[in-house]
């Protein structure tokens, strides 16, 4: 956005983008509940804190140099100028009586765009945490989050949306984050899970979700906030926002039903955890594609993602990596599905106006989408692995065995989520104690 125009923002577009930014921020507490409900009760606060802490770490780095790295003047199609908007300088201006206006990105204030994109960066980091539930030191998590967002997320956001090589030169489509958010976080999650190792007792010990209502609440908040994620990426309150809103809800519904169908066929019963996971899988897959497909395409992408991700979450048992909360099976796999299937189901009647293979567009778009997906996957995986290895060799990355057995809530935060000693008594035992 270098050389942003100075002018008067459109009030309707600005209101929608500020609302969308708030919706996307709500997704991170929603993710905290989604993940928090899936772990055992002795680790729920730690799991929630991993998401919440991302809101602190990423925000500070984003306003100092992250926004500039992602959206500053392009340097070699790889990164934005880190110093151009350091501390958001020049962007918060233009409020005097004689001012010609404020810095704009299209029709909205640059600061509204900064806020909206910040929320994407926050949740991308938070998503990674689910792969290392129950066993990562909190200090190591904070350090990993700070380094990874700096050397991976900020550059990749530039590649995709800031004028870098994926968006501008390759011409791959990622409307709202299939590559930059979901493949990016999923690949990092896989690398981190491999480096940190398996939980004690996995896979023979059952690690059942301790609070499925939390999981369902988290999924509902994610679905709600995702309308800001996808429809907000239109950048304006217009027809593109409306179109992406409807494709988002359609694909998500299809994915949930497909996941439940797979569970019914495979396991005999559909589960609430499966329903919540299917919702997230559909949201992930439609994220890059929501502006490229019509309703039938959204249904197809959602159904494929729901079914494939339902199967993919079990791959960790076959290959032996402990992805605690299925970040790889849902976000990496779902992100790849949504990104690549643009090359199949894109249609000119959708806002992007491009044709995929199914509509006679040949394989041109398909190979571009595939290259973009593979490039982000490889870069994020390799760099995340290097970061994790360095942390492991320096401050240590994993909680010790005693801390894992006790639970990270108590060992890392000196807290417990539930005061179990205060519940469970009967009227009879209470009366005896009082006597």
Structure write-up:
The chain has about 425 residues and is mainly alpha-helical. The chain has a single domain, classed as Ammonium transporter AmtB like domains (Ammonium transporter fold, Orthogonal Bundle). It has 16 helices and 5 strands. It has helices at about 10-40, 45-70, 110-130, 140-160, 165-170, 180-195, 210-230, 240-265, 270-290, 295-310, 315-320, 325-345, 365-395, 400-405, 410-415, 425-435, and strands at about 5, 75, 80, 100-105, 110. The strands form 2 sheets. The chain has a 3-stranded antiparallel sheet. A hairpin with a 2-residue loop joins strand 4 (about 100-105) and strand 5 (about 110). Helix 4 packs antiparallel against helix 13 (about 365-395). The radius of gyration is 22 Å and the shape is globular. Mean pLDDT is about 95; it is low at about 425-435.
Run of helices and strands: EHHEEEEHHHHHHHHHHHHHH
Summed up, the domain count is 1
Q: What's the shape? A: globular
SS class:
mainly alpha
Strand tally? 5
> What low-confidence regions span 5 or more consecutive residues with pLDDT below 50?
427-433
- Widest sheet: strand ordering: 1-4-5
CATH topology grouping: Ammonium transporter fold
Distance, first to last CA: 74 Å
For the record, the CATH architecture stands as Orthogonal Bundle
Helix proportion range: 55-70%
Highest CATH level, the class: Mainly Alpha
Strand content: under 5%
Q: If you compute it from the alpha carbons, what radius of gyration comes out, rounded to the nearest whole angstrom?
A: 22 Å
| Mean of pLDDT | 94
Largest sheet: 3 strands, antiparallel
GO molecular function: ammonium channel activity
Main location: membrane
Subcellular location: Cell membrane
Keywords: Ammonia transport, Cell membrane, Membrane, Transmembrane, Transmembrane helix, Transport
């Amino acid at each position: 956005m270098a050389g942003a125009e100075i002018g008067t923002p459109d009030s309707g577009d600005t209101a929608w983008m500020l609302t969308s930014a708030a919706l996307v921020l709500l997704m991170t507490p929603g993710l905290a509940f989604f993940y928090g409900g899936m772990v055992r009760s002795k680790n729920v606060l730690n799991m929630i804190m991993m998401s919440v802490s991302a809101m602190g770490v990423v925000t500070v780095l984003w306003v100092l140099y992250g926004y500039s790295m992602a959206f500053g003047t392009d340097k070699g199609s790889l990164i934005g100028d880190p110093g151009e908007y350091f501390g958001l300088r020049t962007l918060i201006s233009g409020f005097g009586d004689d001012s010609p206006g404020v810095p704009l990105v299209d029709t909205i204030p640059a600061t509204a765009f900064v806020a909206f994109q910040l929320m994407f960066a926050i949740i991308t980091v938070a998503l990674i945490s689910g792969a290392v539930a129950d066993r990562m030191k909190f200090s190591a998590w904070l350090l990993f989050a700070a380094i990874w967002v700096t050397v991976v997320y900020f550059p990749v956001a530039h590649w995709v949306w800031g004028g870098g090589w994926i968006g501008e030169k390759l011409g791959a489509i990622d409307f709202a984050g299939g590559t930059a958010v979901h493949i990016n976080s999923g690949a990092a999650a896989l690398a981190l899970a491999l480096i940190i190792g398996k939980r004690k007792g996995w896979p023979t010990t059952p690690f059942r979700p301790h609070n499925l209502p939390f999981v369902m609440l988290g999924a509902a908040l994610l679905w709600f906030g995702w309308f800001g994620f996808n429809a907000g990426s239109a950048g304006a309150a217009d027809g593109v926002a409306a179109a992406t809103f409807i494709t988002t809800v359609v694909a998500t519904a299809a994915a949930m039903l497909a996941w439940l169908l797979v569970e019914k066929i495979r396991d005999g019963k559909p589960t609430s955890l499966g329903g919540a996971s299917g919702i997230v899988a559909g949201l992930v897959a439609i994220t890059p594609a929501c502006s490229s497909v019509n309703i039938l395409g959204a249904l197809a992408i959602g159904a494929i993602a729901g079914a494939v991700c339902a199967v993919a979450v079990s791959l960790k048992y076959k290959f032996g990596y402990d992805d605690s909360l299925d970040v790889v099976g849902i976000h990496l796999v779902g992100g790849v599905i949504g990104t690549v299937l643009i090359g199949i189901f894109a249609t000119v009647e959708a806002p992007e106006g491009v044709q995929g293979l199914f509509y006679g567009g040949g394989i041109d778009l398909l190979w571009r989408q595939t290259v973009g997906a593979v490039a982000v996957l490889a870069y994020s995986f390799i760099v995340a692995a290097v970061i994790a290895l360095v942390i492991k060799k320096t401050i240590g990355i994993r909680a010790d065995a005693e801390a894992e057995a006790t639970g990270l809530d108590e060992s890392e935060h000196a807290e417990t989520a539930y005061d179990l000693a205060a519940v469970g008594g009967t009227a009879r035992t209470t009366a005896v104690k009082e006597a």
